[in-house]
Amino acid sequence: MAAKSFLEIFPSQGSSIFHYSVLEQTGEGILGYDDFGPYSMRDVRAEVWRLPSVLTAVREKQTTVSLSDSLHQYPSRYVQGLNPLLIVPICSSSTVIGFAGLSRHAGGPSSISQNLVHSLSIYGGLLGNVLSLDASVSDIPKLTNREIEVLQRVAWGESSSEMAERMRISEFTVQDCIKSAVRKLKAHNRSQAVAKAMGRGLIC
């Protein structure tokens, strides 16, 4: 509902919202919105590390404007004829948990005011807080201190053997903690578990 409201408040031709994975630098489609209403984008995956404007937006946590470098990376049925593309980072606290792409058929970059860009950046932060609050209220994961520490070390890039040595536990225990955290956070893998833990403020 919050994502749909965002796209309704800032109407455009061809809008979309993605979940963002910090570790994998990828975006997974969530919701699109056009003249006919909302539609699912679950089958769309964006490799953010290959999209300069999107990468800049999520790194600097500021709305960016792209004229062409991102459009050809998306499935043509979603972006055909759209220009320019505004990338809005969706943040929870200091962590980017997603981004929105807002496109226009006409008007060009001159039609995009600084007030609009500023408003989009602010609303992206508000949306991130709402989405995180909704998630935390409906399903608060009860991770153990050890599971949180393991996820934090995964975020730092440590291997299972390094974690086992530094935490003075077996690699089996490390793997068990990771699997348990992934399950509790309802994630698909350790990277998504780390992203969700960051979004909830469990790790940094």
Automatic annotation (TrEMBL):
Gene Ontology molecular functions: DNA binding
Transmembrane segments: none
A single BP term in Gene Ontology: regulation of DNA-templated transcription
Organism in which the protein naturally occurs: Brevibacillus borstelensis AK1
Family matches, as PANTHER family: DNA-BINDING TRANSCRIPTIONAL ACTIVATOR DEVR_DOSR
Domain HTH luxR-type: residue ranges: 136-201
Protein name per its UniProtKB record: Transcriptional regulator
Classification via Pfam families: GerE (PF00196)
Record keywords: DNA-binding, Transcription, Transcription regulation
Database matches in InterPro entries: Sig_transdc_resp-reg_C-effctor (IPR016032), Tscrpt_reg_LuxR_C (IPR000792), WH-like_DNA-bd_sf (IPR036388)
